[in-house]
Each structure stands twice: as structure tokens, then as C-alpha cells.
Amino acid sequence: MGKLDLLNSGVQRYFDDFVNKLEQRGLRYSIVETLRTQAVQEAYYAQGRESLERINELRKKAGLYLLEESEAKKVVTKTMNSIHLTGKAADIVPVLDGKVPWLITANNAELWRAFGALGQEAGLEWGGSWPPFDKFHIGWDAPHYQRNV
Ligand SMILES: [Zn+2]
Q1: Which of 34, 51, 90, 91 is within CB 3.0–4.6 Å of 143 for a Cys-Cys bond?
Q2: Ligand 1 centroid to 89 CA: how many Å?
Q3: 43 CA distance to ligand 1 centroid (A)?
Q4: Parallel, antiparallel, or unpaired: how do β-strands 29-33 and 125-126 relate?
Q5: Domain annotation for the chain: domains and CATH numbers
Q6: pLDDT digit string (tens) for 53-88?
């Protein structure tokens, strides 16, 4: 779990506790992102706000893969001051049949909620508790966990 080593040392134990809880229950997970560079944050922020050319220029600079028009139109972050920049957040997602169920459906909502509950038990704030909520009562940033201390 190398990516968790990039987290701020003051919050690492909460994330270790979270993944231990997942492992104890035999839940498969993937750590998508922890510490984020300013260049990556700029590229994310441009998404849904700037032209495709500008977005991909920023993504190239940040070492990210290039986007298609449809994906580039989606807003993925609300702020330039993401807590990921401080190393106090990680995006941790379920893996189901070898794949990440990015689209929350009736078939996987229970699993996403189980992840959220275990993260909260570990002392983390869960992005799935932030409004607006979907029809499964899961907030807009379900992959996201943070400890803002
Ligand atoms: Zn996040």
C-alpha cells in the first residue's frame, strides 16, 4: 500500500486503520490517489471549466493521460485548495469482480456505504456524507476520505 506512505504523517494511522478494517472483512479496495501535486490539482480544476485543449495542455504538464471531450466536460473538483494537496486525504474505492464500480447503482450502493461506514469508524470524514446526495443517499464524493487536523 505504498501510496498511503505519501500521506501526512499525522493522519496516516487513520488510513491504516481504515484499510485494516477493509482487509479484516475481506473487502477488496484500490487506493486511487493520496497526495496530489499543484499541477495535477490545476488540471482537475480546469475540467468542466476550460476548453478541451487547455485541459489537456495542463494534464500533459501534470503527467496525466489526455481526456476525450465528454470526460473533459465533467467537473471533478470544487476547489483549488483540495485537502489532497496537504496529504490529508485519500480516494479509496471498492473493487468488485476485479473492477472499480465507479457508477453507483442499486447493485453496489451497499458496498460503497459499507466503505463509508468503515472509514468513518476509523475516524475519517467521508466525501459520501457531503451533499448533494444521489438516490442511494450517497454524497457527491464517495471515493474521498480525509482527516483535517
Ligand atoms: Zn479525494
Answers
A1: 91
A2: 6
A3: 14
A4: unpaired
A5: 1-35+86-149 (3.30.1380.10), 37-81 (no CATH)
A6: 999 999 999 999 999 999 999 998 888 989 999 999
